């Protein structure tokens, strides 16, 4: 059975989809089905997508012409019916590049069209510099990634950059990243110019959104229709995925839970307002409450800092335990607000909760019991994210693959593919 939202379209709804859009949609449905369930025969594709056999045959021919799928021939005879040749997505057709720019590091990940990892790299970097300096520092990583991509694949399908803060994905602009100190940075255009690619190939989105997308694609969340992920790190934000798609709001600013005011008399937030959740439960607030000496220490690596906070809590140090509990209370209030507003099936707690789980979770749970309005916590399943620090990077590549598969324009062949040198 095809999953919800993957059926092909036979008849246009008047005024909703024109012929080109229907064709593009059907190409994308067939390609996605092959990616997720391939290899398949043409007959199996027809059953799964609801298209006619003739329709499937035409679409398959088109996809083979574009070099996106390959005909494997008759792999093994089926138990019933005539032997049929099998089709699969040609992973080497397109590469997807993801890049993360963060406070203390930059990282990249490259996969092929079916998600096989081709390249991964990470380097320490000060993300709080001005955008041109940061881009100059990231340039080497991006060049290495593009080289790995073009060596393994015939074209680069997408380059997706993620960073903490508020991003307008449609405009490709970083609207406000308090963590990096960036405002109104046209990052998509800058990256496209830096790498000499078309802006349409580049996408920019927030870490909160892309980590939520990665979370929603984990096997344990298969079949979950509505998932919210709360990112708790240098900044706080939430991503909401419904039926496999990110809900970004009208201008991309949905999920800014970190800057919801929780106490009008609270401390100044990095955004310039007072009393935001971020000022009570961001990483700096956590360190201030649980291990203030670490704010003065030479290492500003959050992984090391959290490791030390965890060690102190495990030893039963009173300051660490009290600080973690206090911050957990604020996190629980934020999480309860998300459940009250979004009513998700699943709420995932990301970021530092994983490292501090035994000590922070009781305080979060207590607030959820107190503050979720609907009975039985709105039936929401709350869990701790298993994703490591590269979760958003995985989401960046997944979003890139989604974009490539959705952007198969039947007439122009404009799936954003940049021909690799020598191809
Ligand atoms: Zn704020």
Per DSSP E runs of 2 or more residues, the count of β-strands stands at: 17
Bound molecules: zinc ion
Gyration radius (Cα, Å) is 23 Å
Major sheet: size, sense and barrel closure?
A: 6 strands, mixed
How large is the share of residues in beta strands?
15-25%
Listing every helix as H and every strand as E from the N terminus to the C terminus, the arrangement reads: HEHHEEEEEHEEEEHEHEEEHHHHHEHEHE
How many distinct helices? 13
N-end to C-end Cα span: 38 Å
Structural class: alpha+beta
Low-confidence stretches: 1-5, 409-423
Shape: globular
Percentage of helical residues?
A: 40-55%
Provide the residue-averaged pLDDT: 89
Please outline the helices and strands.
Blueprint: H1 19-37, E1 40-41, H2 42-49, H3 53-65, E2 69-73, E3 86-89, E4 95-101, E5 105-112, E6 117-124, H4 131-152, E7 155-163, E8 166-168, E9 173-177, E10 182-185, H5 187-195, E11 202-206, H6 207-216, E12 226-232, E13 236-242, E14 245-246, H7 277-281, H8 283-290, H9 293-296, H10 302-314, H11 318-342, E15 346-349, H12 353-371, E16 381-384, H13 391-406, E17 418-419
Parallel strand pairs: 4-7, 7-11, 12-15, 15-16
Antiparallel strand pairs: 1-3, 2-3, 4-5, 5-6, 7-17, 8-9, 9-10, 12-13, 13-14
This protein binds zinc ion.
Zinc ion binds next to loops.
Walk me through the structure.
By secondary structure, this protein is an alpha+beta fold. 40% of the residues lie in helices and 20% in strands. It is built from 13 helices and 17 strands. Strands 4, 5, 6, 7, 11 and 17 form a 6-stranded mixed β-sheet that branches. The protein has a 5-stranded mixed β-sheet with strand order 14-13-12-15-16, sandwiched between helices. α12 (353-371) links the parallel β15 (346-349) and β16. α1 packs across α3 and α11 packs across α12. It is globular, with a radius of gyration of 23 Å. It binds zinc ion. The site of zinc ion has 6 residues, from loops. Residues 259, 269, 271, 273, 276, 278 line the site of zinc ion.
